[in-house]
Amino acid sequence: MPTNRRAVVAGAGALALASFAGHSAKSAPVKPLSILILGGTGFTGPHQVAYALSRGHKVTVFNRGRQGNPWPGKVEELLGDRNTGDLKALEGRTWDVCIDNPTTLPFWVRDAGKTLSGHVGQYIFISTISVYASDATPGQNETGALNVYKGADPMAETITSLQADVGGLYGALKAVSEAEAKRQFGAETTIIRPGLIVGPGDATDRFTYWPVRLARGGEVLAPGDGSDPVQFIDARDLAEWTVRMAEARSFGVFNATGPAHTLTTKAMLKGVGEAVHSTAHLNWAPDAFLDAQKVNAWSDMPVWVPRTGDTAGFAQRSIARALAHGLTYRPLSTTAADTLAWFQTQPADRQAKLKAGLTPEREADLLAKLKAAKG
């Protein structure tokens, strides 16, 4: 399954500032914090920055300085490169909390620990639900067995090897990174394991496909019979909750996906369709048909994974701990409408070719075959 969650958000700071206006979880923090965000210019980072600023925190971001600086307020920016071990700008500094967004490579965590251990009161590591060794069991909580790294030296892994993702390195390296975080920061570690992160600014289109496709109307191919569960989280909900976890000094490990209730594929597509004022007609395709036509779950049919066999528990992770610690969600309609509105502001060539889902030509061919199969 695709794993890159570090999409670049053009103009994300202003978008993030507007996105939480009127959101429910707005209680004032106990005290202003000094927050260091490693990264800060990707998918969730700008939302963290904007939300933290709105709550009176002092924010420092550390990155390579290759993206724009769309911050809606005063932000200290420090430059360095974790891939080359250049963390000099962080030396001798102290923060209340560090939020580590982009890290998959364990040596990045090791180097951050060498520089920051004893200089931050809390280290929040953004991991992934892909760390789990099995997706077969519904209701699995944070105690589930993790992927085991099987290479020679995880600290020697590079961005190049990760991009190739030979043998499914992503989840295994995240698991090693989690262990390294605990080794470096001990009891002051918070590990957040998001599921599929969605919303405006997502460069992968792993949710965007549905608002865009349903808004186009016509005959739409839909996966399964509509009863399979789905889980995902709006990047803004994840970002804002992460800041609140820092305010509360909440430690431990948390699955972070949603929504708070069980959501089926049918309910998701209905909600997305209503949000984008769709006139489309859904044609549900049985799993066997999709398998026979080599239609892949998750990539060709985004968000969806069949509730069978090895993936029976993929979209049924327990989020009880996160809910108990204040994770809240925007309505599906808000996420869908905002995602479509954002996508429609992208350049024409970007809109012309979605990075996930079916092309119009392949969908039309599959619909014809589905109707023929049904007689």
First-to-last CA distance: 33 Å
Protein structure class: alpha/beta
Give the percentage of residues in beta strands: 5-15%
Residues in helices, as a percent range: 25-40%
Oligomer type: single chain
Q: Name the helix and strand elements from N-terminus to C-terminus, one letter apiece.
A: HEHEEEHEHHEEHEEEHEEHEHEEHHHH
| Low-confidence spans | 1-25
Give the overall silhouette.
globular
Provide the residue-averaged pLDDT.
91
| Side-by-side strand order of the widest sheet | 3-2-1-4-5-6-11
Count, helices: 13
The major sheet is characterized as: 7 strands, parallel
**Would you report the number of β strands?**
15
Radius of gyration: 21 Å
Write structural notes for this entry:
- By secondary structure, the protein is an alpha/beta fold.
- 34% of the residues lie in helices and 15% in strands.
- The protein has helices at 12-19, 45-54, 106-116, 159-164, 169-185, 209-216, 235-248, 265-275, 287-292, 320-324, 332-343, 348-352, 360-373; strands at 34-38, 58-63, 76-79, 97-100, 123-126, 189-194, 197-198, 219-223, 229-230, 233-234, 252-256, 263-264, 281-285, 297-298, 301-302.
- A seven-stranded parallel β-sheet has the order 3-2-1-4-5-6-11, with helices on both faces. A two-stranded parallel sheet has the order 7-10.
- β4 (97-100), α3 and β5 (123-126) form a beta-alpha-beta unit.
- α2 packs across α7 and α8 (265-275) packs across α11.
- The longest helix is centred in the middle third of the chain and has 17 residues, at 169-185.
- The two termini are 33 Å apart.
